[in-house]
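Worked Example 4.2. Consider the chain below.
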Amino acid sequence: MRMAEWDEAGLRPLFGHQEAWLTGEIEEIGGVEMSAYAVSMPGGGLDRLLVATDLGLLDAERSEDPAGLTILAAALVPWRAVTDVRLRWDARLDASFRPRVRWRLEVGIPAIAIADPVHDAALLALWRTCVRGAAGELRPPKTE
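Applying the procedure from the previous section yields the following structure tokens:
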């Protein structure tokens, strides 16, 4: 799932206007967005926007300054520096005796822990991209 698809699905937190900001920066450095996920951080007031690109994992934090203006601070972590990508889960039976899986994504660097995903397929897409990137399977496009 990409940033635009996340917002179109109405998932929270929205990437909102910051989708255009992040897309512009990714394009400026010659990257391509592959998957994305957004998380509201405990305590409110801060959202974490994760975008897996062919170049690395973009880790952004969105907050507001005292005047209420948006601040977006981001770092692009090259895939060779991303470590300890783990997918964990537990399965339980619901009241109708159907198994229900609860997924968790953990990454060592950058430190990421998503324990209660708002969208399973988006989390799994981010995990797959991170695993492929950390294994060196994603290559930036060749420049001429």
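The CA atoms of residues 13 and 38 lie 6 Å apart. Residues 3-81+121-134 form one domain. Compare this with Example 4.1 before moving on.
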